[in-house]
Write a structure and sequence with these properties.
The complex is a heterodimer of chains A (263) and B (257).
Chain A (H helix, E strand, L loop, with lengths): L1 H32 L9 H10 L1 H35 L1 H6 L1 H6 L9 H8 L3 H25 L3 H9 L4 H39 L4 H10 L3 H29 L5 H5 L5
Chain B lengths: L8 E12 L2 E12 L3 E5 L6 H8 L7 E6 L2 E2 L7 E4 L11 H5 L1 H5 L4 H14 L15 H13 L5 E5 L7 H17 L3 E6 L2 H7 L2 E5 L6 E6 L14 H19 L1
Parallel strand pairs in B: 3-8, 3-9, 6-7, 7-8
Antiparallel strand pairs in B: 1-2, 1-4, 4-5, 9-10
Helix pairs in contact in B: 7-8
The chains are: A mainly alpha (263), B alpha/beta (257).
């Protein structure tokens, strides 16, 4: 146990140490060379901006977070539902699954302007893009989880006369959980991307809008502060999911969990 | 073939045949098993003996013939059968106790009522200290013990075992054979045990049915009249070894065909 804790500590120590060094180097270079903050603000300047303009930043963070979480929740619900349908309907599996996969060659970000034409600027377009971009990894991962069940487990359940309902709730669902969480971890980061990009083009508020606005005014420290606060929010959301995952998927070692499938 | 009195007949397999397309896997197999008899089906890997077992379990269809349990034809899975597979097939998210109680849940019986029995079975298999462990925390032999307890939890009349120890190392395998013999002694069941290990079949069984290569047919039937309870020392004895020799000859003769 002690060595485990030690290993964990060392695993954390190095990345933290290197990050601190990099930030210190950044600060040093900016000061030594007298780089103007319009080109590259120093870390201390970014922190200053975070503190000074926290009202503005938070006022724009909430709408972005709100849309991210709702878009994410919709794609988790929708993805799991579609995965179940694909699992149980061979018609849907054969008919729609290939379409879903092939449709992934369309870069979803490029659809953002189209959404403005259809739904106007505002929350609906942002939400739709966040949903669209996260739906695929959610569906694929969940479907894999529902379907990747050992032949022997099916046979065992049959000899004990399991009903299809029991097979779903007692076998398929728990079997899918690790995959569902893998999909969720990919989706939450993608949901943020979806919301920010759509805010660039289709919103009058949110962090994406703020970044674009600050860029237009050449307010680089504000841009950097926006990116920082957004990254922190993203990290917290991801961490929250990882935490729930650890509790829900208790039967897997944490090292197995961190290696979940990519999208 | 061994004659079994009608009163004690539990399982009857009559002229069973299995085709996979044009391929004949099993040809005209008949066998009767009496109440609380331990019968092994011995044969080379891939000879169709597992298929026969799954047909008895009601999860594989037969192409011709009859299979009946207590005079009723087998048409599908039934609650009075317990199956142990080659792999333990435990659910990784369930504790040992919850895995053992899994059939109880599926059969919609009361968990509370069977928890005590589950603990007794685990104690009998000497793994009760691990009741709240997850399968991944157990060794291969312990996992297979759990799967045997699971097959016994609903107190089925018939236990079907499909090469249950073949995935284990040789030492654990001998040990598990002794354990199974002991468990069976304490918890008498009708057992149909599929194996490709001659020693295992001779050690465990009342009767060994030797099957030949594909298409599988019964080539010989040997009654094992060794005293019970049997322990590991028996495996060194001359009577045991003469049974082993006899079974080996039967298998070799079937290859000559």
């Amino acid at each position: 146990m002690l060595t485990d804790a030690r290993k964990k500590f060392l695993d954390l120590l190095w990345p933290i140490l290197i990050s601190v060094l990099m930030i210190a180097g950044w600060e040093l270079i900016v000061r030594a060379l007298g780089v103007r903050s319009i080109i590259l603000p120093s870390p201390s300047r970014i922190v200053e901006t975070l503190i000074e303009r926290h009202d503005l930043l938070l006022a724009n963070l909430w709408p972005s977070l709100y849309l991210t979480v709702i878009g994410f929740a919709l794609s988790v619900g929708g993805g799991i539902l579609v995965a179940v349908l694909i699992t149980y309907s061979s018609f849907l599996r054969r008919g729609f699954y290939p379409i879903i996969i092939v449709s992934q060659v369309v870069p979803k970000i490029s659809i953002a302007p189209l959404f403005i034409v259809w739904f106007g600027t505002g929350a609906v377009s942002c939400l739709l893009l966040a949903f669209l971009i996260t739906f695929f990894p959610m569906t694929i991962n969940s479907a894999l989880g529902f379907q990747s069940i050992d032949e022997d487990i099916h046979l065992m359940a049959r000899t004990f006369m399991a009903s299809p309902w029991q097979v779903f709730w007692k076998i398929r669902m728990p079997n899918a959980l690790p995959h569902i969480f893998g999909g969720m971890k990919i989706s939450i980061t993608l949901a943020i991307i979806g919301v920010i990009v759509s805010e660039f083009v289709a919103s009058q508020q949110g962090i994406g809008y703020l970044i674009k606005l600050a860029g237009g005014m050449l307010d680089t420290p504000l841009m950097m502060a926006s990116i920082t606060i957004l990254s922190i929010a993203g990290l917290l959301l991801y961490g929250l999911i990882a935490l729930v995952e650890q509790r829900a998927v208790y039967w897997q070692k944490s090292s197995d969990i961190s290696g979940s499938a990519g999208g | 073939m061994e004659r079994i009195e009608a009163a004690s007949l539990v399982l009857r397999v009559k002229s069973v045949r299995k085709l996979y397309g044009a391929l004949e896997a099993i040809r005209n197999v008949s066998l009767d098993v009496a109440t609380n008899e331990f019968v092994s089906i011995l044969g080379p890997s891939g000879c169709g003996k597992s298929t026969l077992l799954m047909m008895v379990a009601g999860v594989v269809d037969k192409s011709a013939g009859e299979i009946s349990i207590n005079d009723a034809p087998v048409t599908g899975p039934r609650p009075d059968i317990g199956v142990v597979f080659q792999q333990p097939v435990l659910l990784p998210w369930r504790t040992v106790l919850d895995n053992v109680l899994f059939p109880i849940e599926l059969l919609k019986a009361s968990r509370a009522k069977y928890t005590e029995r589950a603990m007794e079975l685990l104690a009998m298999a000497k793994i009760h200290d691990f009741a709240d462990h997850l399968p991944r925390q157990l060794s291969g032999g312990m996992r297979q013990r759990v799967s045997i307890c699971r097959a016994l939890i609903h107190d089925p009349g018939i236990l079907l075992m499909d090469e249950p120890f073949s995935a284990l190392d040789a030492i654990t395998r001998d040990e598990m054979g002794v354990e199974l013999s002991r468990i069976w002694q304490a918890n008498r069941k009708t057992v149909l045990f599929v194996t490709h290990s001659i020693r295992e079949a001779a050690f465990l069984s009342d009767r060994v049915i030797v099957m030949g290569r594909r298409p599988a047919t019964i080539v010989e039937e040997v009654k094992i009249e060794l005293p019970r309870p049997r322990d590991i020392a028996l495996m060194e004895s001359e009577p045991f070894n003469s049974y082993v020799r006899r079974l080996r000859k039967a298998i070799e003769a079937s290859h000559a065909h």
